Model the fold of this input.
Amino acid sequence: MGYSVRSMIDMSFACLMFVAAVTVGLLLFQSGSASLNVAYGTNQMADRSVHSTLSPLVGNGKVTGAEVLQSIAHIEEIGVEIVVDGTVFTPQLEREEAVVSGIRTGSKYVPAYERGPQGELQRIRFNSL
Done:
């Protein structure tokens, strides 16, 4: 086989590999685009009124006083009133203004979640044991 024939075969193989790589890249791009469209559509249809609660993943549902204090510290993010043994903490309350001296960090508390008619969280009550 001559040099020109070998060179032509090498160049044909290189062109074929290039076309194959471009085709595979295009298929991957289309697949990723389709997946993103499905995820976007699913996210748009999601129910925005469903909120996560502060339920523990394991255990008997009791929380410590430290966890109650942590909930009060993040009350603006939670966005609902927190009532601890009759003391009301509103979301508008500044962290420095909250009087939390009555919450014992070593005690256990039982949370009770009050929901509205649409299922939205309205108030969290922590009652000490």
The chain has a mean pLDDT of 84. The chain is about 45% helix and 20% strand.
